[in-house]
Design a protein that fits this description.
The structure holds two protein chains of two kinds.
Chain A lengths: L16 E2 L5 H11 L9 H6 L10 H14 L4 E9 L10 E12 L2 E11 L5 E11 L3 H6 L9 H26 L2 H4 L1
Antiparallel strand pairs in A: 1-3, 2-5, 3-4, 4-5
Chain B lengths: L10 E8 L2 H10 L20 H8 L6 E10 L8 E15 L4 E13 L2 E13 L1 H5 L3
Antiparallel strand pairs in B: 1-3, 2-5, 3-4, 4-5
Classes of the chains: A alpha+beta, B alpha+beta.
Chain lengths: ~190, ~140
């Protein structure tokens, strides 16, 4: 489905996205995709010995469901940021539903943005994840038609802020590593 | 014994991966999804790190570590066939007393590059059951 910034309003909800019960096969497939073969998600005996009732579902799968719900709502959108806080362990055979609602609608650096509050529930209506997403939409059909992109581009001003944030991090990290590699007499 | 706090501010992982179609296919199956096409979904970009290597470098026992929070900023689609370099830094590590046992919190920051382009920034908060002394690798 396509959505445009001119059409959406605060309070609009995502269509709840329901999934089939999570199988152990899905856990193995996720391990292969993430290259994270933690036995806590794959080996029942190991998980029990670590104090869990059985293997459990990697938390980030809930964030993936929330992203799917966003894309189902507006596939012609650009996800600028996505976050989730994981509040409850998910188990095999749990049935998850991703939900969300628009909480803010604004312009920033010529981008037309909407902010969503997101959450994922299990079959008992218990919230397993709460999150947020910032999404850029085309203003209207005319703007989409005049764009060379299939989703709204990120402006240079927005990107420059990210570059600055990342460069501060990488430059500081490299400086510390270099200092640690120096012999004591070089530090004197 | 590794003192996690000594690593605050340092790079603790640096990995380069080619995004393969098989990875996306496994993701689609694991989420019961029809197709991601040729692009890595946003929620997955932070998982392109070598998490087992990070646990090893920080001396953490995997049995005690749970993902508590994940936050991603992304400005560029990462497509099949592209080479993604991800550098991960330890921003902070601290303990808080829970009802009976301490819980350790580890904040990781990752920066993903495709060539010279910054593709994403990811912050992850890991919770270590029992705190750092119990959660360390034996």
């Amino acid at each position: 489905m396509k959505k445009y910034w001119d059409e959406v309003e605060i309070g609009h909800a995502l269509l709840p996205l329901n999934k089939k019960p999570i199988s152990r096969l899905q856990l193995a497939q996720f391990a292969a995709a993430s290259d994270d073969f933690s036995p806590l998600h794959l080996d029942d005996e190991y998980a029990k010995s670590a104090g869990f009732g059985s293997v459990f579902v990697p938390s980030v799968i809930a964030l993936g469901l929330a992203e799917d719900a966003l894309r189902a709502y507006a596939h012609n959108s650009t996800i600028v940021s996505l976050s989730g806080t994981f509040q409850r362990i998910m188990w095999p055979a749990d049935t998850l539903t991703a939900k969300g609602v628009i909480v803010r609608r604004y312009k920033n650096h010529a981008e037309h943005r909407v902010q969503f509050s997101l959450w994922v529930e299990n079959q008992n209506k218990e919230i397993v994840m709460r999150g947020q997403a910032l999404v850029a939409l085309f203003k209207n059909i005319a703007e989409e038609a005049s764009s060379h992109e299939i989703t709204p581009p990120i402006t240079k001003a927005t990107h420059d802020l990210l570059v600055e944030k990342c460069e501060k991090l990488t430059n500081a990290g490299e400086a510390v590593i270099h200092a640690q590699n120096l012999a004591p007499q070089e530090l004197a | 014994m590794i003192k996690i706090k000594n690593y605050i501010g340092t790079e603790i992982d640096n990995i380069t991966r080619i995004i393969e179609l098989g990875l996306l296919k496994n993701l689609e199956r694991s989420l019961g999804r029809e197709a991601y096409g040729q692009a890595l979904p946003v929620f997955m970009v932070g998982h392109m790190i070598n998490i087992s290597n990070i646990y090893k470098n920080l001396g953490l026992n995997i049995n005690h570590v749970l993902l508590s929070r994940e936050s991603i900023i992304t400005h560029r689609t990462i497509k099949v066939g592209e080479s993604l370099r991800v550098r991960t830094y330890l921003r902070d590590a601290y303990e808080q007393q829970a009802s009976s046992n301490p819980i350790g919190f580890i904040i990781l920051e990752s920066v993903g590059n495709v060539g010279s382009d910054i593709a994403f920034y990811c912050e992850r908060v890991l919770a270590v059951r029992g705190g750092f002394s119990r959660g360390k690798n034996s």
